[in-house]
Amino acid sequence: MYQRDDANLGAASYYVTGAQTWGVSNVGKFTEAVYESYIISSSRQFYNTLDPELFQTARMSASSLRYYGIGLQNGNYTVALQFADFDFEDSQTWQSVGRRIFDIYLQGERKEKNFDIMKAAGGKSYTAVEKQYIVPVTRNFLEIHLFWAGKGTCCIPFRGYYGPAISAFSVTPNFNPTVQTSRKTGIIVGVVVGAAVLGVLALAGLCMRRQKRRKLLLEQQELYSIVGRPNVFTYGELRTSTENFSSNNLLGEGGYGSVYKGKLAEGRVVAVKQLSETSHQGKQQFAAEIGTISRVQHRNLVKLYGCCLEGNKPLLVYEYLENGSLDKALFGSGRLNLDWPTRFEICLGIARGIAYLHEESSIRIVHRDIKASNILLDANFNPKISDFGLAKLYDDKKTHVSTKVAGTFGYLAPEYAMRGHMTEKVDVFAFGMVILETLAGRPNFDNMLDEIKVYILEWVWQLYEDKHPLDMVDPKLEEFNSGEVIRAIHVALLCTQGSPHQRPSMSRAVSMLAGDVEVGEVVNKPSYITEWQIKGGNTSSFMSNNVSGQSSMAPRSSASHTSSPFLNSVIEEGW
User: Fold this and answer.
1) I need a surface site. Which of 14, 255, 404, 411 has the fewest CB within 10 A?
2) For residues 66-92, average pLDDT
3) Are residue 307 and residue 341 in the same domain, yes or no?
4) For this structure, is 327 an active site residue?
């Protein structure tokens, strides 16, 4: 049964055929169109068809064109869509430049992406193209949707010749119908009302989209003036670069959020950090802080390329480092075979990076969360500190006392863990722990080891007092420089002293590690370890007596978890 589609549809309109078997909905107004008709015609001869008259007219749409089959018996149907493009000539002139590209959906499922009629016809105009699909009808209803996704040309050869277009289509049941076609009024009214609502909503959506885009452009202009145009990314390009933040691209998760591997349009590989919570600051102030951090650059700091501040979860774009984090390289599932010279240079590089943040940068930055998982390694195993400056973005108090401790158990200095007293010596303490982990090739807490080895600082002090400090070196290191190892152990023990005044500055720690100045004698064992041993006997017994066997002291646990044995001992001591 042939039905002619010759209704005069406008920018947002619908109609139902007289036989009440088909509904049509059109949405979209052509920009500066030559004429207002949405039906185009040609009397030329069409090829590759036995019925050229079908292709002499075609319906166009500036955005979205839907056909509804009403009251169909449920079952599988063969849907044949027929196209022929005669807007774009295939001659060797400027008129051949135009391209009509759109997507095809059937029953809401995309069947064709970036469909180009002329390309499908071998680059020929006035040539019929037929696409056939087997489509299930399960609710007596069929929807054919042609959607312009913003691709192709809009002004060549004439303005207003973009968007989907179709010449004819047929729907044939792949079975023998057993019931009469239903044409109940309720179905018709439902389709008509639905199409009308769709049109109204589409118009409203277009208006809202324009307003939103205008507001976004104004916000971007403000951000450009603060951060600089090259350093502001759109959410769309970062979502595309990470494949919609796919779990396959997840590099890791930390205290500030998740990090994804992404590839920008120009081919540059980046790491995109999706911050887990919104700063208390406004976007402009947040952008100003990001701009400041991005200007802090050192060979041992991860480079911050820029940011995206659309929505409530800001995105930060960093350089991508091939060899991942230090903790994974040392004792993670993807551990690497790091020899002693590499490990020693890693310790030196970390020290230089922290010293730059504390003493050489234009703004003094206390990291607050120095740990092995925040140290990243490039292709040559050069260490780079990540997440520096982020604590400042979320700290609404500008004094040295913070109401929220930012850090990781096992790396927290006593004065910071118990009183929130934050100075650069907090980073010095954490650096000492990272040195010990790098030398030993193990985390600072591991309750799978012998009791005396569970907490690395207690174990190393025991070896140091017994005059066997080299016994703490990673067994995988077959060769190492004993003098450098002893020097590194001494520096680590100095950095982890209980009193911040007894810890060296980071610039002095660099000099001591490099052998430029004498390390000197390590002062006495910190009182927090002595108190711990007196009251708890050992790590395991203290843990079982005080925290019911919970191993909440693991180095990558959250600061909001149950307090660790180390912190309990600090509490007992009166910090």
Assistant:
1) 404
2) 87
3) no
4) no
